[in-house]
Amino acid sequence: MSSTPQKRAVRKSPAERAAEITEAAREIALETGLTALTLRNVAARVGVASGLVAHYQPNMEALVSSTFATIVAAETQEIAGLLSQLPTPSERLSLLVDTLLDNSRLDVTAIWVEAWTLGRRNEALAASVREQMDAWQKVFQGVVEDGNATGAFNVSDAAAVAWQILGMVDGLNAQALVRWDGVNDRGSHLARAVEGMVGAAPGSLVAKPAQ
Amino acid sequence: MSSTPQKRAVRKSPAERAAEITEAAREIALETGLTALTLRNVAARVGVASGLVAHYQPNMEALVSSTFATIVAAETQEIAGLLSQLPTPSERLSLLVDTLLDNSRLDVTAIWVEAWTLGRRNEALAASVREQMDAWQKVFQGVVEDGNATGAFNVSDAAAVAWQILGMVDGLNAQALVRWDGVNDRGSHLARAVEGMVGAAPGSLVAKPAQ
DNA sequence: ACCATTGTTGATCGTGCGATCAACAAGAGA
DNA sequence: TCTCTTGTTGATCGCACGATCAACAATGGT
Predict the structure, then answer these.
(1) Taking CA A102 as the corner, what is the angle to CA A98 and CA A104, rounded to the nearest 5 degrees?
(2) Is B184 on the interface with A (CB under 8 A)?
């Protein structure tokens, strides 16, 4: 019975090992949160001595910050990809609201919330958070501006409205993190609110009942 | 030069000492966050040995949880008090939105956000968080229901809409925590969105320019 | 003036953290 | 086959945390 005591980790190329470490960090963050990103935790997951993780990272602040950026940027790009397949701004805005509120990404939401707090004591992370928030805001702003051009929306300050919608989505998601029950059709309520903000026709953003 | 080495703390009644400790905890939480609530931190602020803090608290989880509840409940009651002085539901809802977004309570917002994360690993805190969120929701729900009765609003599910508005406010506040700049008139944007959600007349919730 | 009560101390234990580094060993090039 | 490069180990340091508890000392009742 040797089970899994594992004598010594096989020797790998720096690039490969570095990738293993960042991947392990990603998994740990999604499962247990950014706070669980410790040298020993990551090392154990990779199956390696803690010193090796330290050897591949300048310090833990950096690993936390880059792990956050990796996870969150992937989500942004995924959704932006979906957006690009839709023809009208109304459909795009509708998809944004629906998709972001469908509770399928609560693990990422948890990381956002944790990062807002951790950023107070980790300057690198704080910078990452601002950067990723800007990226999200730009996605929303693009959709709003498109709708303005089309005439579907009527917004004087697209940037401000984009920030606003983003904030609302974040808040509702954070709420779902703690209180999953209570409210069901959050999407349609938010859609109605957003209609008011962007000056869209009433009902134009409310999700269709599964076409 | 004796500066402040302080030989021994004066002997006080249990009630008095307990009050000192909870007050110190409150201050620390508001200034540095719930994470900074450690035995040694609190003890140092009171000017007392760390063991004494432990003696007055079952454990630190409990102190964190009760400190959160103290801070947050005070805010809820403060705002609820202001509300009760206004005659119409529209004015009350308008005050809620304006006041909660005026950036004068960012320290409390930071504690909310921190509690959402810490609640994952502190069950007592998680229970406190749910309790205090319910309290806030009830405040919003009451205003919405009043507006329904008056005819100022037209909402089918007041509870759901209340949760929704609360979530939006939380999100926008959390956003302000990280990105203070960017958006100025968040209040009026949100007001317009809320008008759409509660079916209020357009403009009826937008803050008047200082009467 | 004494003493029993009790508020208070501070050292101590075990744990976990980030960081460091001399020593080791696997593997590629000669 | 030998050697040298370099990926890897694991012990170690200093620190901070929560918790515990025997010893201490201030105080009020007698």
Answers:
(1) 140
(2) yes
